[in-house]
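Hi everyone,

Forwarding the result from last night's run.
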Amino acid sequence: MDPRQRPRLLEIIQNLRERIREARANGWLGEVEGLQVSFDAAMAKLNSLKRAPTDGRPQLVDLGMPVFTDHAPLLQPGSGEPGYRP
C-alpha cells in the first residue's frame, strides 16, 4: 500500500468505528459482523504499513520453504509424457 494513503486509511478506520458503534446501538448484529470484518482488514493494512520501509525500497516478502513431494509424475526430458522411460 502506498504510504501516502495512510491519512485516507485512518479516515476509513474511524468511519468503520462509528458505523460499528451505531450498528450495535440499533441491534444490527449482522451489520456489526460485516463491519468488523472490514475494520479488521483495515487495521491489518495499517499495521503492515507501519512495518513497511519508509525509504522507498520495495518490501521483502517471505515465501517460505518449498515443499517437494513424491506425488509428481516422472517426466523424462523430450518424452512429453509422464512416466515415460526409454
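Residues 48 and 67 are 27 Å apart (CA to CA).

Cheers,
N.
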